[in-house]
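Q: My collaborator sent me two sequences in one message, no labels, and asked for predicted structures for both. Can we handle them in order? The first one she listed is below.
A: Yes, handling them in the order given. First sequence, followed by its structure tokens:
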Amino acid sequence: MIDSHCHLDFESIAENLDDIIINSKKNKLTSILSINTHPDKFNNHIKLISKYDGIYISYGLHPCNVNSMDQGSILDFDKYCSNPIVIGIGETGIDLYHSKNFLKEQIFIFEKHIEASLKHDLPLIIHQRNSEKEIIDILKNYLNLNIKVVFHCFTGSPNLVKFCLDNDFYISLSGIVTFNNADELRKSIKNFPLRLILIETDSPFLAPVPMRGKTNEPSYVKYIAEYLADYFDLELNQFIQIIDNNFFNLFNKSKRDNQL
């Protein structure tokens, strides 16, 4: 089992990381992808995880941290993307949930991430909130370049589902899919091909049922896997094998023998 998106450097996890990793092993996790949200935090982030096997990291600037065009100059993709445990770009994208004040800046930084994804042949990890049209319009400019994409914490509309299907983009399902009020999400992914699905915790946020209300952690990806295996009418081990294969197919810089 693999948690394809979490934030091990966030304080509520980082301060208990040894226990978090023990819990992950108990629940049979083999790999974790920890997502970077700001270049200024990257060195401390990679130092935090470097003593553990089976943990990978992404490099990028979260759209909620974008407030200036000048931030493009702090994104040193060439320096960091050659590191063997950097296996993805992001998370990046557009977030218009709170405000549209920095839309132009977010678009500019998003495009910088896309260009780096293509240059370094690393998958693009997309954060989308209230911004489906904007993200689709931008990605359309790069479709002929065979860009590799995963929409993390997917809650998209049927239009975004179709866009992902048309372009073989991956979606990553979080604990949200287990929530009682997530009927629309479950309906939208019912016929989505399993070969394009990942699972994630997005911890420390969005703990799945039956852990709702607790601080989320990578070990809880087990509950998402169990829920979705039942939803797709598969044996748990069969579902996990499919999802693990998807992770290694998309994040092909990762290695199966590098385990927690």
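Q: And the one she listed second?
A: Here it is, processed independently of the first:
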Amino acid sequence: MPARQPAEMAQAASETGAKKVHRTWDRVTVSAFLAGAYIAFGGLVAITVSSGLDPATWGTLPTLFTGAVFTLGLVLVLIAGSDLATGNMLLVPLGAMQGRIGVGDVVRNLTLVLLGNLLGALFVAYFLAVSTGVIGDAGAEPGSSGALTYERLAGIAEGKAGGHTAWETFLRAVGCNWLVCLAVWMSLAATTVSGKILAVFFPIMAFVAMGFDHVVANMFFLPAAIFAGVPDLGWGDALLNWLLAGAGNLVGAVVFVGTSYWYLFLRDQPAEPAQAEEAERS
């Protein structure tokens, strides 16, 4: 089956966004919990793979390794199927722009999905990252795997919590979700699993390598650091980062991807009644 063309991708994105709001709250919550856990898995393996790589020797290559393996998170989200807030920030508003759903539907869906993502990320951070010892702590023996992963996590979390101004964090979040949503957008062109994986790999690798801020990834990195006992890092720092990253992610999705492609391909293509009814039934 040939790949979809951009106009077809736009219609598919709009229909997908509309379908996402016509489900019961419990199904959305479970789906979002899974997505939060999947992104946390990507973050956990990224820490594990890139820990212990001295920048004096490796330069900036650790960020490339981090980005390359972090793509696991979005691959799991797209192929296994779940609701990730940053992707829904593109798809659900796009459905509203074409008149398939209302603004209230968008707000309710994004709020519920963000909550579910947070629960999934917290679960992995506490039970599978820290409680398992995969992420060590400050008391780990120097040079051990626990000490190396702890130091890597601490460096990432400290950079996200206090390494940038509020404006810088917001802009990094805009750039992040511009790339994430392009990954989601391009995956709609593919009709095979391998094609979807290839479509998402480079944009996701790029945003992580550049140090941009993804609100759901930060729902894993910052709590994991707090649970592991990284000093001078608290829940107030995490909440501020999530607010800034979430706002920037929303702008990146809606303005630079959703509105742009709505204008190019959907502005003169209102949803047909039959399509809207089908979406409501699904």
